[in-house]
Amino acid sequence: MTATLSALTAIVLVNPVPWARAQMAFTLAFHIILVPLGVSWAFMTLIANYRGLRHQDRAALVLAQRWSKFMAVTFAVGAVTGTVLTFEFGLLWPRFMGQWGEAFGIPFAFEGLFFFTEAIFIAIYIFGWRRLRPWAHFWTGVPIVLAGIFGSISVVAANAWMNAPSGFVLDSDGRVIEVDPIQVIFNDSMPLQAAHMLIAAYLVGGFLVASVYAAGMLRGRRDRYHYLGFVIAFSVGAVATPIQIGVGDLLARWVYSNQPVKFAAIELVPTTSSDVPETLLGHLNEDGTVSGGIPIPGLASWLSDPSTGRATVVQGLDTVPPDQRPTVRQTDIVHLCWDIMVGLGTLLFLLSVWYAVSWIFRRRMPRSKWFLRAAAASGVLAVITMEAGWVVTEVGRQPWIVYGHMKVEDAVTANTGVWITFFAVVVLYALVGTTTILVLRGMSRRFRTAEDFVDHDTPYGPSQPEVPAGAEEVIG
Amino acid sequence: MSTAVAVVLLLAVVAYAVFGGADFGAGFWDLTAGGPQRGERPRGVIEHSIGPVWEANHVWLIFIFVILWTSFPGAYASITLTLFVPLTIAALGIVLRGASFAFRKAVVGMRYRRAFGAAFAVSSVLVPYCMGAIAGGIASGRVPAGGQAGDPVQSWINPTSVLGGVLAVAAAAYLAAVYLVWDARRLDEEMAEYFRRRAVAAAAGVGVIGLVGIFVLAGDASYLFDGLTSRALPLVILSALCGLGALVLLVRNAPRGARLLAVIAVASVVVGWGVAQWPYLLPESLTFSAAAAPAGTLAAVLVVVLLAGAIVVPGFVLLFVLHQKGLLPEEGVDDRPAVERG
Predict the structure, then answer these.
(1) CB pairs below 8 Å between A and B: how many?
(2) Is residue B166 a part of any domain in this protein?
(3) What secondary structure letter does DSSP report for A124?
(4) What would the DSSP string read from start to end of A144-208?
(5) How far does Cα B217 stand from its chain's mean position?
(6) How many domains does the structure of chain A reveal?
(7) Which of B91, B293, B323 is opposite residue A102, by nearest beta carbon?
(8) Which of A24, A91, A127 to mutate to test the interface with B (most CBs of B within 10 A)?
C-alpha cells in the first residue's frame, strides 16, 4: 500500500514548470491560428458583400454568405480556445496573476468588451442574411471588423506589457500598490507590437483564405466564384505584406534599444561588439561561440542603426548573468525562428510583388501555374511565419514572464498534476483541430455540389438581386 | 470602490447563471431527449433556441475571470491554485461543448451528429456541475487567503460543493425548460407541452434540492447559512415565492410571466449567496476590501463596465430583439437536398 502510494506520488509529483510552459505554448499556438480569421475574415467578407450589393454581383454575394458560415465555425472554435486561455492564466500562472493581475489584467477587461461586441454582431450577421434588409445587414458586419481590430490590440497590449512593464508602483515588499491603467495599456512596447500583430492578422488571414481558392483553381475550378474568393483574399494579404515588413523593422529596432538581451538572442550575439554579422541559421555553443550558418558581415549592426552603419554596437548575451538571459537552447530557438520569420516573410513579399506587377502591367492576376502553386502554399507559409514571430517574442523574453521583474519559474502553479492536463489538452485540441478542418472541408464540398442557386440558397431571400448574365456558370 | 466592483462581479455571476445557465440546461434536455427519432423534435427546438446567442454567453464567464484577476488578484490566485481540478474539467468541458455544438450543426450524417450531440450534451451537464462545486468550495470557506492552495480534493468534493453542483445543473435545466416552452410555442405546440411538463418537473426538483440544501448548509457552511437566514433572508423568500409563482403559471399553462418569475427566482438565489457571504470574498479569511487591487485598476474596471453599458448592452438588446422577431432565422448550413429545398 505504502509502496503503491509512493510510486503514485512519484508519478504525480512532476515539476510543473516545463509542462505549464508547454501547455501555454501549445494552446496559444493553436489559438493564434484562429485569430487572423476572426480578425480579418469579416473584413474580406464585407468586401465581397459590398461588391455583391453595389454591382449586383451574385457570385460575390454567395461568396460573402458562404464565408460568413465558415467564419461561424472558426469563430466558435476561436471563442472556446480563447476561453480556455483565460482559465489557464489562473490555472498555470496563479502567482503571476496574483501579483501582477491588477496591472497585466487591465487590457483584458477591454478585450472582453470588444470580444462581446464581436460575438453579438457575428451572430446577427451570420443569421441575418435572409430577413434583414441588404444594406442594413451589411452594416451589422462593420462592428465585427472594428471589434476584431480593437480586441486584438487589447490582447497584444497585455503581452506588450510583459515586455515593457510600466504603469505601477511597488512597495518595499515588491507588491503593486498603485496602478496607472493608461500607462499599463499604452506601455512602451504596445504601439509597434499591436500594429505588428494586427497587420499579421490581415496578412495571414488573406493568404490563408486565398490559398484555398488557389488550390481550387489548380484543380480546374476557374469560375468567377473562385476568382473572387482568391482575388479579394490575396489582395488583402499582398497589401499587408510590405507594410508588415516596415513595421517589423521598426519593432526590431525597438527591441534593439529596449530588450537588448532578446535582440542578442535574435541576432546570435554572444559578446558585445560592433560590426556584428547577420548570421543566417547557425547555432550557439555552450562555451559562447557561434558555429555553422552563413554570416553576412556587418549587416546586423547596420540594420540595428543605419545612421552609424557597421560601427553600431550590439549588446551581447554575456552582459547579463546566465540566469537572466535565455538558455543556449532557447537562444537557438529564438534565432532559428527569427530566420524562419524573415525568410518566409520575404518569400511572401516576393509573391505579393509578382501579383502586384501583373495587376499594374497586365491589369489581371498572374496566370502562371507556378504562381497559383505558390499562392496555394502561401496560407501555410504565412501561418508558420506568424508562429515563428510569436516564438521570437515569447522565448526571447525568457526567463522573464514580466521583463526584469518576475521569472517564469516564480509564476507557475504549485500544482504538480499539470503534465496530466497538458496531455488532456493536447488530445482534446488535436480532436478539435482535426474536426474543424474536416467540417470546413465538408461544408465546402457541400457548397460545391449544390447544383444551383435555389431561393433558399440565395442571400436576402425572395428579394434577391438581379442575376447578372452568365451567373449560372458560377456555381462550380 | 471595491464594493462597486464587487457588485459588478455579482451581477456578472447572475448574468452567467441566467443566460449561460439556460444554454447549459438546454444541453441537459438534449441529453435526456432519447434516441435520434424520439429526440429529433425537441433537439430541433433546442438548436433553434440557443443557435444565435450561444457564443455571446461565454463572455460572462470571461468577464468574471477578468474582474477577479484585475480587481482581486490574490483571491484569484488562491481560487485557481485550490480549485485546479474542477476548473480544469470545466475548461475542457467548455471546449468540448462549444466545438461539438458548432460541429453538430455543420455536419451531415446521423452518426457524426450523434457523436457531437453526445459530447455537447454530456459536457453541458459537467460544466455547470463543476461551476456549482467551485461556488460551493468558495462559499463554504475552503479556499484560503494569501495566494495559497487549499485542499485540492476536499475543496470541491464536500457537501456544499455537491449541493452547489447539483443545484447548478438543476437550476440550469429548469431555466432552459422554461425558456424552451416559450420558444417552442412559436414553432411547435406539441413541443411546448413537452417542455412545459419538464419545466414543472425541474421546478419541483430544484425546490426539493433547495430544501435539502438548507440542512446541508446548516451543517457544512455555517457562515453562509447564517447570512442566508439573516440579511439575505428576503432574497431567499423572494426566490421561493417567484419559484412557486412560476410553478403555478407553468401548471396552469399561462401564456406569459413564468419566464420572468423563473429568472428572478434563480437570480435572487445568486444575489442571496453574494449578500450572505458579504463582506467576504473568501468567507471568513478575505474580505472584498482587503482583497481589492489599487484604485487605478478598480477605476479602469468600472470604466469598462460603463463602456459595456454604452456598447455591449445596445448590441445585446438588438440581438435579442432581432432574434425574438424571427429576423435571424438562418442556422448553420442547410443540408437538405436541393429538390426538397425548392
Answers:
(1) 255
(2) yes
(3) H
(4) HHHHHHHHHHHHHHHHHHHHS--SEEE-TTS-EEEE-HHHHHT-TTHHHHHHHHHHHHHHHHHHH
(5) 21
(6) 1
(7) B293
(8) A127
d(CA B55, nearest CA chain A) in Å: 6
Contact B69 A89 (CB under 8 A): yes
Question: In chain B, how many domains are there?
Answer: 1
Q: So what's the pLDDT on residue B51?
A: 59
Tell me the CA distances in angstroms from A154 to A167, A193, A209, B60, B194, one per residue in order: 16, 11, 25, 18, 46
In a domain, B115, yes or no: yes
Distances (CA, A) of A84 to A31, A40, B131, B134, B170: 10, 22, 14, 17, 25
* Residue B274 distance to chain A (closest CA, Å): 22
Give per-residue pLDDT as tens, A432-455: 888 888 878 887 877 777 644 443
Report which of B157, B179, B138 is spatially closest to residue B28, judged by C-alpha positions: B179
Contact A124 B88 (CB under 8 A): no
**CATH number for the domain that contains residue B185:** 1.20.1630
Assigned domain for A423 exists: no
**B324 grid coordinates:** 425574438
Looking up cell 555553443, which residue turns up? A285
CA A84, B67, A201, A330 dihedral sign is negative
CA atoms of B263 and A207, how far apart (whole Å): 47
What pTM did the predictor assign?
Answer: 0.86
Instruction: Give the chain A residue whose CA is nearest to the CA of B56.
Output: A119
Q: Dihedral of CA A301/A306/A311/A314: which sign?
A: negative
Identify which of B92, B308, B333 has the shortest CB distance to residue A113: B308
**Nearest CB to A130 within list B52, B96, B330:** B330
Asked, for residue A198, whether it belongs to a domain, the answer is: yes
C-alpha cell at B187: 414553432
Average pLDDT over residues B33-43: 81
Find the domain containing B141 and state its range. Answer: 2-285
* Partner residue opposite B56 with nearest CB, options A116, A179, A436: A116
Q: A4-20, pLDDT tens digit by residue?
A: 655 555 555 678 888 88
Closest CA to B45 of B187, B246, B214, B254: B187
Q: Are A411 and A418 in contact (CB under 8 A)?
A: no
SS3 category, A279: strand
Is A58 inside a domain boundary?
yes
* Contact flag B98-A113 (C-beta cutoff 8 Å): no
Q: Is residue B292 part of a domain?
A: no
Question: Rounded to an integer, what distance in angstroms lies between the CA atom of residue A367 and that of residue A412?
Answer: 53
Which chain B residues contact residue A122 at CB under 8 A? Answer: 55
Tell me the ipTM for this assembly. Answer: 0.82
A125 touches chain B (CB under 8 A): no
The closest alpha carbon to A365, from A201, A208, A228, A241, belongs to: A228
pLDDT at A346 over 90: yes
- Whether residue B330 is contained in a domain is answered as no
Burial of B201 from C-beta contacts in 10 A (0-12 / 13-18 / 19+): middle
A113 vs B contacts (CB less than 8 Å): 304, 307-308, 311-312
Residue B38, all three cell numbers: 424520439
CA distance A300 to A194: 24
Out of B301, B312, B338, closest to residue A116 by CB: B312
Which residues, in sequence order, are CB contacts of A444 under 8 Å at separation 6+?
A66, A70, A212
The parent domain of residue A251 ranges over: 35-75+96-257+455-476
Residue A372 contacts B, CB cutoff 8 Å = no
A159-196 pLDDT tens trace: 999 999 988 888 888 788 888 989 999 999 999 999 99
* Candidate from B73, B296, B327 with C-beta closest to A181: B296
Report the C-alpha gap between A392 and A262 in whole angstroms: 8
Asked whether the beta carbons of residue B81 and residue A414 sit closer than 8 angstroms, the reply is yes
Residue A390, domain member (yes or no): no
